Structure formats: C-alpha cells, structure tokens
Amino acid sequence: MKILTVVGARPQFIKASAMSLEIAKHDGIKEVIVHTGQHYDSSMSDVFFDEMSIPKPKYNLHVGSGSHATMTGKMMEGLSEVICNEHPDWVLVYGDTNSTLAGALTAKKLHFKVAHMEAGLRSHSMHMPEEVNRIVVDRISDLLLCPTETAYNILSDEGFDRYPCTYENVGDIMLDAAFYYQSMAKRPLELRLFNSDFLLCTIHRAENTDQKNRLETLIAALYSVADHKPIVLPMHPRTQQALLKFNLSFDHPNIFLIEPVGYLQMLWLLTNCDAVLTDSGGLQKEAFFFHKPCLILRSETEWVELLDVGNHQLVNPENTCMIGMLKAMQNAAGQYESALFGDGKCAEKSIELILNWSQN
C-alpha cells in the first residue's frame, strides 16, 4: 500500500511526524511525502524535518506565498503530476490549509481516495478561509478522521451518514506527537539565561495581522499584560512583515521577542510557561495538553469544546482586561480531561481504519 501525504504548513509537519512514526511500523505501507512549500521559510519548515526525524519530502512544489487562488492553483497543478506519477492508494491531508484543500481536490478529481485528518471541525464563520477549506475537504473525503466527539457529532448532524464515506473519532494526532516528543523538549537558545515565570504568546492569523488598527490594538493589549508578567513571543514571519509594513513594533521591556522555534523548543515553552495567549488553532490544544490556561486572541475557534472546560477563553483585546482574565483562570481549578482529545493513539487507529478499508 502507498500513502501520499500532503503537507505545507508548520502544524502539518508536527501531525505528519506522528503518522510517519506509525506508518514506519508497517512493512506493507510505503509513505511518499509531498511538501507544497506553503511555509517555505527554513525556520517554519526545514527545522521540523531535521529535529523531529520526519522522512524528507520526496517532492517539494516550492509554491511560496500568494493569494489563496494563486497558491491553491499552483499546488493543484503540481500535485496533479505527482499523484498521477505515484498512483497512491490513499492521499492523506491534514487540517484546513490551502495545502489541504489542494491535496483533497486534486486527488478526488483524479479519482484517488482521500483521508482527512482533523475532520469535522467548525468555527461557524465563513469569513475564515480555513472554514471554507474544512467544509469542502470534509465533503469530498472518503475517510474522515475526527479528533473529538464534538467533531464526530458535527459530521453526524450535517448528514454525513448519507454520503459514501466513513467517519470515526480517532482522537487528536497532536496529542500523539506531544506524548512522543515531550521528553525531547529543548530550551530556546535565546532563553538560556531566562528563569522568570512567563507567558507564551504567538500571533500570526490574518485577522490579527492584516489590518493596522487591529494589530495596534493587540500590541497595546499585550503591553498591559506585560506590565504584570513577562511575555515570550516567537516572531512569526507573517507578523514580522506586518510590523514592517505598518511601521509598528513590540517595544516593551517585558516582552521578549525570539526567532520562530521548532517543535521541541515549543514544547519547552509550553511546559515552562504560566499561560498561553495565541491565535493559533494548534497551540490552543497544546496548551490544554500541558494544563495551561489559554486566552484565544480571536472572535471564534474551531476547537469549541475547549470553551466548555473553563481553561480557555476567547478574548477581544479592544474591550477586555486580559491580565484579569488570566488571573481568574489561573486561580480556578479548571478541568484538563485528557479524554477530550483521545488517548494518544490517533495514528494507530487511523492506520487501522485505512488498512481495514483497503481489505474490504
């Protein structure tokens, strides 16, 4: 059996690593990895393949940045040639990026089976390009691998029982990765002398970086938090470009800007921080895995179950005292039910489903 894995963005490299480890246990399965080049900066791409021992991509499409239409079109053009050349039994896609959409659409138009990891997520905001990608990819996939019971129920409510597909709750693939790599966590070099309690912050989404007023407001809100506690902020290339474009900066003595970090360094930050402030979908979950309160710097989240446990809250920097919210969450007992995202055996269950489908 041959599985063609399509990745293109930082979170997908982490997810793919856990699946690759499981695939390697099966002599009868060959994996071919295609990197679309959606994240092409070495700090957001190469470092993950190096430090996590992920098999190197056989193909790199080098798509780079551009509009959604341009990127997706270039990816589909490149993937069409690759898929026809490799003729895989399955095309495996992750999450909700343009790489995910391109991989699923291309495979389906060429009549190859598609497995979608992280199926069934919904933020219920069609203004998010990721939401459009999720809905389209779910609808055309043959095997939908849901990370939570909530995601599974969403597909049931949307009538997926009527479609010629299979959907199952296998748990979250990022929990597999967190379990496996936690003991390998490494302190970022910039923080080798850093011993203070700190908050971990990441910012990269378009809704926070593409408009000057929004980014200014967010910076001011983080200043108010940094007045009380240090913030460590790995600088995403997209955010850095936005700061240059709008002539803005993070100029606060208690905000420590560092270069983008690899996954093992992020695990160290998660393990040692007091709480997380982020607009990242993946980091929201990882904060939960490591029992850290999290302020979600967005107006909605696809991980809606996190809002029900009391450790995570959506926040609007324009009218909310974020430091007060953080203190309230830290003082509360909170719930960190590991079963919410499965048992760390998502990859094993997913491969079993793929093998069973093929045998039937």
From TrEMBL:
Pfam families documented for this protein: Epimerase_2
Record's keyword annotation contains ATP-binding: no
UniProt keywords, alphabetically: Isomerase
Superkingdom classification of source: Bacteria
Keyword Isomerase: yes
InterPro entries (alphabetical): UDP_GlcNAc_Epimerase_2_dom (IPR003331), WecB-like (IPR029767)
GO function term, MF aspect, one: isomerase activity
Ranges where the UDP-N-acetylglucosamine 2-epimerase domain occurs: 22-354
EC nos: 5.1.3.23
Signal sequence range: none
Family from the record: Belongs to the UDP-N-acetylglucosamine 2-epimerase family.
Protein name as it appears in the record: UDP-GlcNAc3NAcA epimerase
Organism: Desulfurispira natronophila
